[in-house]
Design a protein that fits this description.
The protein has about 500 residues and is of the alpha/beta class. It is built from twelve helices and 23 strands. About 45% of the residues are buried. Bound molecules: asparagine. Keywords: Hydrolase.
Length: about 500
């Protein structure tokens, strides 16, 4: 690949030489060199090449890796028929929606290969009432993997933690990076080229916020042209906030950014870290994905649609109001009907943010005085979780307090306390106060996404009418807005 790496890697697993030397999988390690002013991490010079004692892995048919396009741009524009018929291994397979098999993807007798047609999950967003076609991305991936390059940013989280003397989990510098280096999967010819940048200070995600998301956005921007996809390794506790924030910071994103983590650390024999990381690398190789996603356990979710829903289960993430974009079962699928369209404009990064946002639930009988105290300056944004479809108590003093805040320039984002469904102003008389106080409907947006969206938009200090319009609009697929026009607001 004639690609220029914007920031040198901490360490790199490289399979590009393997067609020449199928018996020896080369692993590049790296030595610390100097401080990178952009990422504040140590730059590593990938100059130390060590032959490992790993047993040789069976190389894939060289005709596949030799003949497939080598960049996302070329892959997008090129038809798959560049692969000669008969060159695929039995586990590969791809059938188009009408059931025909393109010549490039000849299936050789595997009952596992082929398209998976699934009913969408029980919940359909408005406008999506039918079933969605899920395609077997795993089959497609096995012809793609080794031609792709992925930039991985390791920020911390349980996946790379070890146990301290008191038995509590804490980030262990370099452990995850070294462990990944030693896993045979990462030297497989089917894996993309991987470059990992471990942050100087890896964190429990409780310490990740807008500032760290801006640093991630900056790092993605610096490496955007050099890689086909990005993976962010992150703790689960605030993963949905970071994924949401990244989605708003990255405008016209044309490549996958997959955020993942684990519930069990990689230091345990039984863990979910290994699979989550491997599958995220695979999804990050997709040329169909051009958005920020979370992969966890067995689902690929839109990053700004998901929430952490379980503390102790492996299926810790879910999206209540939007179906998964992909699923991992016997097949690894991508539901193309649901994916964001490739962007029309240039990739652009917005790193500004404003953290002066609070959120609260309306509670039965909530007192205006309490709300008044909560929403004093420097508060600039309020996320208010209302009852049901956007309702609240009728006490006029409550709405006066909120109206006054709105009049002095505080934005009030209206969400529902229900985990499914969306806000509709005007459905009940009990919702009149909510809209009259200047509230802006967040429809079915998650609280993580509402916080991220407000923070990013308020950080840009736009005129109030533009800010209100952006908050009311669907910018990144984060909420289901029932508007009939295809009006897209300017600016984000
Ligand atoms: N599973 C995890 O990653 C939880 C951890 N406390 C974190 O968010 O960093």
């Amino acid at each position: 690949m004639s690609k220029k790496r914007a920031s040198p890697p901490k360490f790199k697993v490289d399979q590009t030489d393997d067609t020449d030397k199928p018996q020896q999988n080369a692993v590049r390690t790296a030595t610390p060199r100097k401080q990178n002013p952009l990422t504040n991490t140590k730059e590593i010079e990938p100059d130390l090449i060590r032959q490992t004692s790993m047993p040789p892995l069976t190389p894939p048919p060289t005709s596949i890796t030799n003949q497939l396009p080598t960049s996302s741009a070329s892959h997008r524009s090129q038809s798959v028929s560049t692969v000669p018929e008969g060159s695929l291994s039995p586990q590969n397979g791809h059938v188009s929606d009408d059931g025909t098999v393109p010549s490039a993807y000849v299936r050789k007798g595997s009952s596992l290969a082929g398209v998976v047609r699934e009913k969408a999950p029980f919940l359909h967003p408005p406008g999506h009432q039918g079933s969605f076609n899920s395609e077997n991305f795993g089959g497609e991936y096995s012809t793609l993997g080794s031609t792709r390059s992925i930039y991985v940013i390791y920020t911390g989280g349980t996946l790379g933690m070890t146990y301290g003397a008191d038995g509590s989990l804490r980030p262990e510098p370099h452990f995850l990076t070294q462990k990944i280096q030693s896993l045979p999967e990462f030297r497989s010819h089917q894996m993309p080229q991987i470059v990992i940048n471990e942050w100087d200070v890896i964190k429990d995600s409780s310490d990740m916020g807008f500032q760290e998301a801006a640093k991630l956005a900056e790092e993605i921007q610096a490496n955007y042209d050099s890689y086909d996809g990005f993976v962010v390794l992150h703790g689960t506790d605030t993963m949905a906030y970071t994924a949401s924030t990244l989605s708003f910071m990255l405008e016209n994103l044309g490549k996958p950014v997959i955020v993942t983590g684990s519930s069990i650390p990689l230091c345990e024999i039984y863990n979910d870290a290994r699979r989550n990381v491997i599958v995220s690398f695979m999804y990050a190789s997709s040329s169909d994905l051009c958005e920020v996603c979370v992969f966890f356990n067995n689902v690929l979710l839109r990053g700004n649609r998901c929430s952490k829903v379980s503390v102790r289960e492996l299926n810790a993430f879910w999206s209540n109001n939007f179906p998964p974009l992909g699923k991992l079962g016997v097949h690894m699928t991508l539901t193309k009907d649901l994916l964001r369209e490739p962007p029309k404009g240039h990739f652009k990064v917005h790193k500004e943010f404003d953290e002066n946002i609070i959120q609260f639930n309306l509670l039965p009988g909530i007192k205006a005085g309490l709300v008044h105290n909560m929403i004093q300056p420097p508060v600039k944004g309020i996320i208010m979780h209302t009852f049901g479809a956007g309702n609240g108590p009728s006490d006029p003093s409550l709405w006066e307090v909120l109206k006054k805040a709105s009049d002095r320039g505080v934005y009030i984002y209206i969400l529902t306390q229900c985990i499914r469904g969306y806000v509709t102003f005007g459905e009940y008389a009990a919702g009149q106060g909510v809209s009259a106080c200047g509230g802006i409907s967040g429809y079915d947006i998650t609280v993580e996404s509402a916080f991220a969206k407000m923070g990013c938009i308020l950080g840009r200090n736009l005129p109030s009418d533009v800010t209100r319009e952006l908050l009311a609009s669907d910018l990144r697929g984060e909420m289901t807005v029932d508007i009939s026009s295809d009006h897209v607001p300017m600016g984000l």
